[in-house]
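Q: Please design a sequence for this.
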């Protein structure tokens, strides 16, 4: 580009512009351009002023709004807490009926805010309004049972209301391993009746193993008795109230797909072949110590959480298996002592369903020695919530939410008290 006098020559000189004409054009239109920019600046200034005024107005209202939202949060929670207080207190008084000192206590749910989220303490309130820790073993048994039912109910109570659900779907199933271990004999008939009422009222399927007498449970449950003879487990059906319930309860057929219909253990410790058909409501397995009761919990834990070792395999056998009939599916879990080309890993899962001819067909087949495959989790719907096993009440976790390893914040979240507050915090 070359410049000569008032002309602009571009490139090879074939194009030439008159700079004086161009400058004249710019001068004539400069006023219009400045006016346009001025109008834009005035408009933008007015917009900013309005935004500042609105934000200033919101800032002035913030303390009032914050106070309102805090009150709204506690209004939502107090309704649940009042229900929890009355229900758990009523359950404990109904069961622990022979102890006047324990009957005089009210179970107290103390809700407070920790880090902007609900936190929960559970203790007892005496007749003179003194707060004290719950130390009675029998009372802890009853409260832990009620809390486990409440936690599961809160996670499943309304599938269209995500404020009361967890992050994934949960099955209405509880397996309790000796949850009555500290309850006195005088209170056992009441506890057995309580389990029946909880299972029917909350529409839960409950499986329980216990060392207590069968007579406590016969009026309320499908009852089996285990016995261990020379290292072999035998099982006997003693009573079956579910036959009478099936005739009266027309809803059982409608929830058939959600039931665990049966389980079978093969070469799992002392269980050579043990099959149990479950009631849609309450099933109880009684037996003396070392009869193989708690082994059943080990089997469920192996399938649901993939927790096992070679010790679960019966002596002189290479493979143990657990089969769950869940609705229209069959879940098969296997563990081998020695791997080979057919079983390159210790643990294998298979999932079957039935075709139109009611014949089994294989849907999935996977090896996984560490985690439960997703296709199994989707069928069982019994994953842990907040690292707490709501569905399986193992003996070492018989106190459930009284476990000192559970924080006040986690306790509130397990009971789904944090769900409503999360929406309030978003508004805040």
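A: Design:
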């Amino acid at each position: 580009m070359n410049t000569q006098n008032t002309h602009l020559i571009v490139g090879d000189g074939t194009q030439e512009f008159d700079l004086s004409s161009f400058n004249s054009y710019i001068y004539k239109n400069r006023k219009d351009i400045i006016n346009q920019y001025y109008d834009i600046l005035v408009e933008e200034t007015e917009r900013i002023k309005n935004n500042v005024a609105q934000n200033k107005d919101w800032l002035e209202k913030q303390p009032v709004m914050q106070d309102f939202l805090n009150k709204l949060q506690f209004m939502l929670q107090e309704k649940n807490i009042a229900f929890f207080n009355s229900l758990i207190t009523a359950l404990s008084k109904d069961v622990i009926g022979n102890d006047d000192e324990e009957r005089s206590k009210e179970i107290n749910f103390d809700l407070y805010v920790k880090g902007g989220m609900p936190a929960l303490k559970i203790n007892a309130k005496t007749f003179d309004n003194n707060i004290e820790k719950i130390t009675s073993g029998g009372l802890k048994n009853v409260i832990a049972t009620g809390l486990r039912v409440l936690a599961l109910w809160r996670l499943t109570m309304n599938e269209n209301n995500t404020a009361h659900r967890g992050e994934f779907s949960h099955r209405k199933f509880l397996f309790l391993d000796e949850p009555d271990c500290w309850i006195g004999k005088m209170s056992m008939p009441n506890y057995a009746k309580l389990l029946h009422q909880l299972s029917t009222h909350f529409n839960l399927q409950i499986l329980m193993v216990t060392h207590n007498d069968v007579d406590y449970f016969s009026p309320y449950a499908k009852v089996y008795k285990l016995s261990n003879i020379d290292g072999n487990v035998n099982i006997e059906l003693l009573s079956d109230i579910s036959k009478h319930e099936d005739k009266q309860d027309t809803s059982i057929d409608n929830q058939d797909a959600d039931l665990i219909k049966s389980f079978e253990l093969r070469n799992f410790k002392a269980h050579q072949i043990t099959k149990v058909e479950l009631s849609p409501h309450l099933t109880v397995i009684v037996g003396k110590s070392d009869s193989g009761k708690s082994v059943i919990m080990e089997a469920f834990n192996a399938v649901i959480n993939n927790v096992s070792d070679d010790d679960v395999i019966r002596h002189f056998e290479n493979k143990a298996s657990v089969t769950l009939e869940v609705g229209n599916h069959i879940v098969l879990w296997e563990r081998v002592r020695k791997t080979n080309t057919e079983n390159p890993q210790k643990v294998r899962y298979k999932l079957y369903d039935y075709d139109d001819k009611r014949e089994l067909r294989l849907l999935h087949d996977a090896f996984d020695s560490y985690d439960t495959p997703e296709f199994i989790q989707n069928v069982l719907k019994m994953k842990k919530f907040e690292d707490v096993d709501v569905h399986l009440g193992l003996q070492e976790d018989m106190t459930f939410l009284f476990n000192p390893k559970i924080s006040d914040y986690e306790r509130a979240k397990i009971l789904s008290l944090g769900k409503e507050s999360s929406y309030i915090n978003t508004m805040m």
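Q: Thanks. Anything notable?
A: Residues 19-95 form the longest helix (77 residues). Residues 159-166, 250-254 have pLDDT under 50 and may be disordered.
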